Amino acid sequence: MTIPKNSSATAAPYQPRGLLVDGVWIAPGATNTLYSPYDGAAIAEVPQGNSDTVDRAVAAAKLALDADGFERHTRIDLLDAAVEQLRARQEDFAQTIAIECAKPIKTARLEAARTVDTFAFAAAEARTFAGDVVALDAVASGRGKVAYTMRVPIGVVAAVAPFNFPLNLVAHKVAPAIAVGCPVVLKPASQTPLSALLLAEMLTDIGLPPGWLNVVTGGGAEVGGPLCAHPDVSYITFTGSPDVGWGIAARAPKKRVRLELGSNAPLIVDCDSDWQTAAAKAATAGFVQAGQSCVSTQRIFVHADIASGFREALAAGVSQLTIGDPLSEDVDVSAVISRKDALRIESWVNEAVSEGARLDIGGERIDNVIVPAVLSNVTPDMRVQCDEVFGPVVTVTEFDDFDTALEMANDSRFGLNAGVYTSNVAKALKATRRLEFGSVYINDVPTVRADQQPYGGGKDSGNTREGPRYAMAEMTEPRLVTMQ
C-alpha cells in the first residue's frame, strides 16, 4: 500500500455563522473546537445548543407549520434552486466534507454530486406526489359519493444525522421534508456539523422561509435527547448506531420513529461466478471511506473451490490502495473519525488474530488511520464477524454449497444490504427470496446505494425506507375526504 506524504489543504474550512433558529443565525454562549480526524488540527469553532435552543427551534418549526404559507409550487421552486446551487458549489461542499470527516476528496466529490441528485429527485417527486381516488361507489352504500385521499404533513420533523455522509444523509432528511411541507429541526453529528450548516446557509440564502429548517448543533444529551423527546415533534428520522436508534424508539412510543442503522454487509461469491471481478470490487467496497458506511462490505463468503485465488486477488487489490491525507487527489483511504474508533478497530483485529484468525494483509494503526485489513479463518463469534466493524476490515470465509452460504449470510442481527455473485439464475432467484436483507444485489457488491431507491433494512438495521419518494410517504399521512 502507498502512504503519501501529508499535503496541505486546498481550501480554508467553512466557519459556522451560528445556530439557525427561525431564519436567524444566533450565537450561543458556548462553542466547541472541531478537530480534523486526520491530523488533529483545529478546523472550526462550532456553536453548542442546549434544551432551551431546542425549545426555540421546535417552536419556530411549529409556527411555520401552523401558518401553512409554504405552498407546494414555492417549495418546488426552492428545491430547483437548491439543485442549481449545489451543482455550482460542489467543490465547496466536497472540501468541507473531506476536511471535517477525513473522507478522501475524490469520494467527497461523489457525495456532493449525489446530494445534487437527492434534491433533484425530491423536486421531481414534489411535482406529482398526491393521494388517490377511492371508489366508494363500488358498494351500494357509496352511491352518489366521491372520495379521495390527501397526503398531509405529519408535523415537525426531528432529524438526527450521522457523521459518515455529513451532507447527503442530511439531504435525505431535509429535501423530502421540504417537498411535503414538514418543517425540520436538524441535529447534525457532533463530529461533522460543517456540511449541514453550510447546506442550511445555502438554503436560507436562496429563500427558504424562516422556521422551515432549524439547525441546532451540540451533543446527544444536550440537543439530541431534548429534541427527540419534545412533545411538538411528530416524526423522528435517525441515522446512526442501533443502540442509540432503538433507544430513541423505545422512549417515543407515540411518535413515528424511522431508523436507518448499522450492518455487517455480506458478499457471497459462488464458484460459477465472475469471481475475479468480485475480488476487484471487494478490494474497494470494504474500504471506501475507511469502511465507515452502513453498507460497507464486511463479511465475504467464497466457495472453497475458488477461495485461494479469490483471497490472492483480493489482497493484491487491497495492496494497491493509497492511504493518507484526505485532501490528496490520489488517496483512497484516510483516517477513521476518531482516535477512540481507531483504537477500537485495531483491538478487534488483534483480538481476532489472537483467537486464531489469519491476517492476510494490513491491520496496522498509524495514528487515526487503519491500514486496510483482510482477515480469513474467522469464526462466527468473533466481533469482526458478528458485529459491525465500521472500519476498513473485511473477513473471508469459505463455504462448500450455496445454501450454506445463504445461511451464513443470514446469521447476523443486521439486515441492510447483501451482494451475491453467481452466473446461475436459479441460485440468484433463490438468494433474492432467502436473504433477509432490505436490498439484494446480484453480481454486485452490497456497498451500493442509488439515491432514488427504497433504502433500508430490517432486524437491527432499522425500520424504514429512505429515498425521496419513500421518505415523503412516511412524512405524510393520508386524509380521506368524501363528498355526497
TrEMBL record:
Task: State the Gene3D superfamilies in the record.
Answer: Aldehyde Dehydrogenase, Chain A, domain 1, Aldehyde Dehydrogenase, Chain A, domain 2
Q: Which InterPro entries match?
A: Ald_DH/histidinol_DH (IPR016161), Ald_DH_C (IPR016163), Ald_DH_N (IPR016162), Aldehyde_DH_dom (IPR015590), ALDH-related_metabolic_enz (IPR051020)
Q: Give one Pfam hit by family name.
A: Aldedh
Q: SUPFAM superfamilies, from UniProt?
A: ALDH-like
| Record GO terms (molecular function) | lactaldehyde dehydrogenase (NAD+) activity
Q: Which UniProt keywords apply?
A: Oxidoreductase
**Segments for region (Disordered):** 451-484
Limits of the Aldehyde dehydrogenase domain: 31-480
| UniProt similarity note | Belongs to the aldehyde dehydrogenase family.
The protein, known as: Aldehyde dehydrogenase
Which taxonomic lineage does the organism of this UniProt entry have? Bacteria, Bacillati, Actinomycetota, Actinomycetes, Mycobacteriales
